[in-house]
Protein backbone atom coordinates (compact mmCIF):
# COMPACT_ATOMS: atom_id res chain seq x y z
CA UNK A 1 0.00 0.00 0.00
CA UNK A 2 2.89 2.35 0.71
CA UNK A 3 4.35 1.60 -2.72
CA UNK A 4 1.00 2.25 -4.39
CA UNK A 5 0.63 5.49 -2.47
CA UNK A 6 4.05 6.72 -3.59
CA UNK A 7 3.39 5.78 -7.21
CA UNK A 8 -0.04 7.41 -7.20
CA UNK A 9 1.53 10.76 -6.34
CA UNK A 10 3.46 10.82 -9.60
CA UNK A 11 1.22 8.75 -11.85
CA UNK A 12 0.36 10.70 -14.99
CA UNK A 13 2.96 13.39 -14.30
CA UNK A 14 5.14 14.32 -17.24
CA UNK A 15 8.37 13.83 -15.26
CA UNK A 16 7.06 10.85 -13.31
CA UNK A 17 9.36 9.64 -10.55
CA UNK A 18 11.86 12.39 -11.30
CA UNK A 19 9.69 14.51 -9.00
CA UNK A 20 10.91 12.38 -6.08
CA UNK A 21 14.27 14.13 -6.50
CA UNK A 22 13.03 17.38 -7.99
CA UNK A 23 10.45 18.22 -5.27
CA UNK A 24 12.87 18.28 -2.29
CA UNK A 25 15.47 20.11 -4.40
CA UNK A 26 12.97 22.83 -5.31
CA UNK A 27 11.88 23.08 -1.68
CA UNK A 28 15.52 23.56 -0.66
CA UNK A 29 15.96 26.35 -3.22
CA UNK A 30 12.78 28.16 -2.18
CA UNK A 31 13.53 28.08 1.55
CA UNK A 32 17.13 29.10 0.89
CA UNK A 33 15.98 32.14 -1.05
CA UNK A 34 13.27 33.16 1.44
CA UNK A 35 15.09 32.57 4.72
CA UNK A 36 18.68 32.92 3.55
CA UNK A 37 18.47 35.92 1.22
CA UNK A 38 15.19 37.72 1.93
CA UNK A 39 14.96 37.30 5.72
CA UNK A 40 18.73 36.79 6.10
CA UNK A 41 18.27 34.22 8.85
CA UNK A 42 21.34 32.49 10.32
CA UNK A 43 22.19 29.97 13.04
CA UNK A 44 25.21 32.06 13.92
CA UNK A 45 26.88 35.28 12.88
CA UNK A 46 29.63 33.40 11.00
CA UNK A 47 27.35 31.00 9.14
CA UNK A 48 27.05 31.39 5.38
CA UNK A 49 23.82 31.08 3.40
CA UNK A 50 24.59 27.60 2.06
CA UNK A 51 25.26 26.18 5.55
CA UNK A 52 22.07 27.75 6.86
CA UNK A 53 20.09 26.28 3.96
CA UNK A 54 21.40 22.77 4.62
CA UNK A 55 20.66 22.97 8.37
CA UNK A 56 17.18 24.32 7.63
CA UNK A 57 16.51 21.62 5.06
CA UNK A 58 17.50 18.82 7.45
CA UNK A 59 14.78 19.94 9.87
CA UNK A 60 12.15 20.62 7.22
CA UNK A 61 12.40 17.03 5.99
CA UNK A 62 11.37 15.73 9.42
CA UNK A 63 8.61 18.31 9.58
CA UNK A 64 7.48 17.05 6.16
CA UNK A 65 7.05 13.51 7.52
CA UNK A 66 5.05 14.77 10.48
CA UNK A 67 2.86 17.09 8.40
CA UNK A 68 2.18 14.60 5.62
CA UNK A 69 1.28 11.74 7.97
CA UNK A 70 -0.92 13.62 10.40
CA UNK A 71 -2.78 15.70 7.82
CA UNK A 72 -3.64 12.61 5.78
CA UNK A 73 -4.35 10.38 8.79
CA UNK A 74 -7.38 12.49 9.70
CA UNK A 75 -9.20 11.28 6.58
CA UNK A 76 -7.50 7.96 5.89
CA UNK A 77 -10.41 5.85 7.19
CA UNK A 78 -12.99 7.78 5.19
CA UNK A 79 -10.74 7.57 2.14
CA UNK A 80 -10.74 3.77 2.33
CA UNK A 81 -14.40 3.22 3.14
CA UNK A 82 -14.58 0.11 0.95
CA UNK A 83 -11.90 -1.56 3.04
CA UNK A 84 -13.88 -0.80 6.17
CA UNK A 85 -17.30 -1.88 4.93
CA UNK A 86 -16.77 -4.72 2.51
CA UNK A 87 -13.46 -6.44 3.22
CA UNK A 88 -11.87 -8.37 6.03
CA UNK A 89 -8.88 -6.07 6.13
CA UNK A 90 -6.40 -5.15 8.90
CA UNK A 91 -7.32 -1.47 9.15
CA UNK A 92 -4.29 -0.74 11.34
CA UNK A 93 -2.25 -0.97 8.13
CA UNK A 94 -3.76 2.28 6.81
CA UNK A 95 -1.92 4.79 9.07
CA UNK A 96 1.24 2.70 8.82
CA UNK A 97 1.18 2.89 5.01
CA UNK A 98 1.00 6.69 5.24
CA UNK A 99 4.09 6.71 7.46
CA UNK A 100 6.09 4.48 5.12
CA UNK A 101 5.05 6.54 2.10
CA UNK A 102 6.14 9.77 3.77
CA UNK A 103 9.41 8.18 4.85
CA UNK A 104 10.24 7.19 1.27
CA UNK A 105 9.85 10.78 0.11
CA UNK A 106 11.94 12.06 3.03
CA UNK A 107 14.71 9.56 2.27
CA UNK A 108 15.11 11.04 -1.20
CA UNK A 109 15.35 14.46 0.45
CA UNK A 110 18.10 13.28 2.80
CA UNK A 111 19.90 11.67 -0.14
CA UNK A 112 19.96 15.05 -1.89
CA UNK A 113 21.09 16.71 1.34
CA UNK A 114 24.05 14.35 1.73
CA UNK A 115 24.98 14.78 -1.92
CA UNK A 116 25.07 18.56 -1.53
CA UNK A 117 26.90 18.71 1.80
CA UNK A 118 30.41 17.84 0.47
CA UNK A 119 29.89 20.25 -2.44
CA UNK A 120 29.08 23.09 -0.03
CA UNK A 121 31.93 22.53 2.42
CA UNK A 122 30.40 20.02 4.86
CA UNK A 123 32.16 16.66 4.40
CA UNK A 124 30.23 13.60 5.55
CA UNK A 125 31.48 11.60 8.52
CA UNK A 126 30.83 8.06 9.70
CA UNK A 127 28.25 9.56 12.04
CA UNK A 128 25.69 9.58 9.23
CA UNK A 129 25.34 5.84 9.81
CA UNK A 130 23.56 6.73 13.06
CA UNK A 131 20.80 8.60 11.25
CA UNK A 132 18.41 5.60 11.08
CA UNK A 133 18.70 5.13 14.86
CA UNK A 134 17.96 8.82 15.47
CA UNK A 135 14.99 8.85 13.10
CA UNK A 136 13.47 5.62 14.49
CA UNK A 137 12.01 7.13 17.72
CA UNK A 138 10.60 10.00 15.67
CA UNK A 139 8.86 7.51 13.37
CA UNK A 140 7.43 5.67 16.38
CA UNK A 141 6.06 8.94 17.73
CA UNK A 142 4.56 9.98 14.38
CA UNK A 143 3.09 6.52 13.91
CA UNK A 144 1.40 6.62 17.31
CA UNK A 145 0.00 10.10 16.67
CA UNK A 146 -1.23 8.95 13.23
CA UNK A 147 -3.17 6.09 14.83
CA UNK A 148 -4.80 8.48 17.31
CA UNK A 149 -5.74 11.02 14.64
CA UNK A 150 -6.99 8.32 12.25
CA UNK A 151 -9.23 6.89 14.98
CA UNK A 152 -10.60 10.29 15.97
CA UNK A 153 -10.92 11.42 12.35
CA UNK A 154 -13.20 8.51 11.57
CA UNK A 155 -15.73 9.82 14.10
CA UNK A 156 -15.15 13.58 14.05
CA UNK A 157 -14.58 15.51 10.80
CA UNK A 158 -13.36 18.51 12.81
CA UNK A 159 -10.13 16.66 13.58
CA UNK A 160 -8.62 17.69 10.26
CA UNK A 161 -8.95 21.39 11.11
CA UNK A 162 -7.42 20.87 14.54
CA UNK A 163 -4.51 18.92 13.04
CA UNK A 164 -3.68 21.74 10.62
CA UNK A 165 -3.42 24.18 13.52
CA UNK A 166 -1.33 21.67 15.49
CA UNK A 167 1.11 21.27 12.60
CA UNK A 168 1.66 25.02 12.30
CA UNK A 169 2.21 25.18 16.05
CA UNK A 170 4.73 22.32 16.08
CA UNK A 171 6.71 23.90 13.24
CA UNK A 172 7.06 27.34 14.82
CA UNK A 173 7.61 25.97 18.33
CA UNK A 174 10.52 23.78 17.26
CA UNK A 175 14.14 24.51 16.27
CA UNK A 176 13.42 23.90 12.59
CA UNK A 177 13.43 27.56 11.56
CA UNK A 178 15.72 28.86 14.32
CA UNK A 179 18.29 27.50 16.80
CA UNK A 180 17.40 26.65 20.38
CA UNK A 181 20.01 29.15 21.51
CA UNK A 182 17.78 31.93 20.19
CA UNK A 183 15.37 31.26 23.07
CA UNK A 184 15.80 31.98 26.78
CA UNK A 185 17.28 29.05 28.70
CA UNK A 186 14.23 28.67 30.93
CA UNK A 187 12.02 28.17 27.84
CA UNK A 188 14.15 25.60 26.02
CA UNK A 189 13.14 22.55 28.14
CA UNK A 190 9.49 23.11 27.19
CA UNK A 191 10.36 22.85 23.50
CA UNK A 192 11.61 19.33 24.19
CA UNK A 193 7.92 18.37 24.49
CA UNK A 194 7.57 19.08 20.78
CA UNK A 195 7.92 15.82 18.78
CA UNK A 196 10.25 17.61 16.34
CA UNK A 197 12.74 19.17 18.74
CA UNK A 198 14.91 16.25 19.90
CA UNK A 199 15.19 14.42 16.54
CA UNK A 200 15.98 17.67 14.68
CA UNK A 201 18.74 18.47 17.16
CA UNK A 202 20.15 14.91 16.98
CA UNK A 203 20.25 14.88 13.18
CA UNK A 204 21.91 18.29 13.00
CA UNK A 205 24.46 17.13 15.56
CA UNK A 206 25.45 14.18 13.35
CA UNK A 207 25.44 16.13 10.08
CA UNK A 208 26.81 19.51 11.14
CA UNK A 209 28.53 18.97 14.48
CA UNK A 210 26.08 21.03 16.55
CA UNK A 211 25.62 20.12 20.26
CA UNK A 212 23.78 16.88 20.92
CA UNK A 213 20.73 17.05 23.23
CA UNK A 214 21.29 15.86 26.79
CA UNK A 215 21.38 12.08 27.11
CA UNK A 216 18.42 12.08 29.51
CA UNK A 217 16.36 14.03 26.98
CA UNK A 218 17.20 11.50 24.27
CA UNK A 219 16.31 8.55 26.52
CA UNK A 220 13.09 10.23 27.63
CA UNK A 221 12.13 10.98 24.03
CA UNK A 222 12.71 7.38 22.96
CA UNK A 223 10.65 6.05 25.90
CA UNK A 224 7.86 8.56 25.24
CA UNK A 225 7.83 7.64 21.54
CA UNK A 226 7.42 3.94 22.34
CA UNK A 227 4.61 4.79 24.74
CA UNK A 228 2.84 7.00 22.19
CA UNK A 229 3.14 4.28 19.55
CA UNK A 230 1.67 1.61 21.84
CA UNK A 231 -1.14 3.80 23.15
CA UNK A 232 -1.99 5.05 19.66
CA UNK A 233 -2.16 1.55 18.21
CA UNK A 234 -4.13 0.31 21.21
CA UNK A 235 -6.66 3.11 20.85
CA UNK A 236 -7.05 2.46 17.11
CA UNK A 237 -7.61 -1.28 17.64
CA UNK A 238 -10.13 -0.56 20.38
CA UNK A 239 -12.37 1.71 18.32
CA UNK A 240 -11.94 0.35 14.79
CA UNK A 241 -14.95 -2.00 15.09
CA UNK A 242 -17.19 1.06 15.07
CA UNK A 243 -15.79 2.58 11.88
CA UNK A 244 -18.33 0.85 9.64
CA UNK A 245 -21.19 2.36 11.63
CA UNK A 246 -20.07 5.95 11.07
CA UNK A 247 -19.12 5.72 7.39
TrEMBL record:
<keyword id="KW-1133">Transmembrane helix</keyword>
<feature type="transmembrane region" description="Helical">
    <location>
        <begin position="21"/>
        <end position="39"/>
    </location>
</feature>
<dbReference type="InterPro" id="IPR047817">
    <property type="entry name" value="ABC2_TM_bact-type"/>
</dbReference>
<keyword id="KW-1003">Cell membrane</keyword>
<feature type="transmembrane region" description="Helical">
    <location>
        <begin position="91"/>
        <end position="117"/>
    </location>
</feature>
<comment type="similarity">
    <text>Belongs to the ABC-2 integral membrane protein family.</text>
</comment>
<feature type="transmembrane region" description="Helical">
    <location>
        <begin position="129"/>
        <end position="155"/>
    </location>
</feature>
<dbReference type="Pfam" id="PF01061">
    <property type="entry name" value="ABC2_membrane"/>
</dbReference>
<keyword id="KW-0762">Sugar transport</keyword>
<feature type="transmembrane region" description="Helical">
    <location>
        <begin position="218"/>
        <end position="237"/>
    </location>
</feature>
<keyword id="KW-0812">Transmembrane</keyword>
<feature type="transmembrane region" description="Helical">
    <location>
        <begin position="162"/>
        <end position="181"/>
    </location>
</feature>
<keyword id="KW-0472">Membrane</keyword>
<keyword id="KW-0625">Polysaccharide transport</keyword>
<keyword id="KW-0972">Capsule biogenesis/degradation</keyword>
<dbReference type="InterPro" id="IPR013525">
    <property type="entry name" value="ABC2_TM"/>
</dbReference>
<dbReference type="InterPro" id="IPR000412">
    <property type="entry name" value="ABC_2_transport"/>
</dbReference>
<feature type="transmembrane region" description="Helical">
    <location>
        <begin position="51"/>
        <end position="70"/>
    </location>
</feature>
<keyword id="KW-0813">Transport</keyword>
<protein>
    <recommendedName>
        <fullName>Transport permease protein</fullName>
    </recommendedName>
</protein>
<feature type="domain" description="ABC transmembrane type-2">
    <location>
        <begin position="15"/>
        <end position="239"/>
    </location>
</feature>
Amino acid sequence: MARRDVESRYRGALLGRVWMFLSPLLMLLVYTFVFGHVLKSRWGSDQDTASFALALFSGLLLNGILGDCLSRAASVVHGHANYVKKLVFPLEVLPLSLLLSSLVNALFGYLILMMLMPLLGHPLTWGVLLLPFFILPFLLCVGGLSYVIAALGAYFRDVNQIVQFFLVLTLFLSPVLYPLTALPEDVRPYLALNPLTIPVEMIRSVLFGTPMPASMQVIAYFAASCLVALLGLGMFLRVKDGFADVL
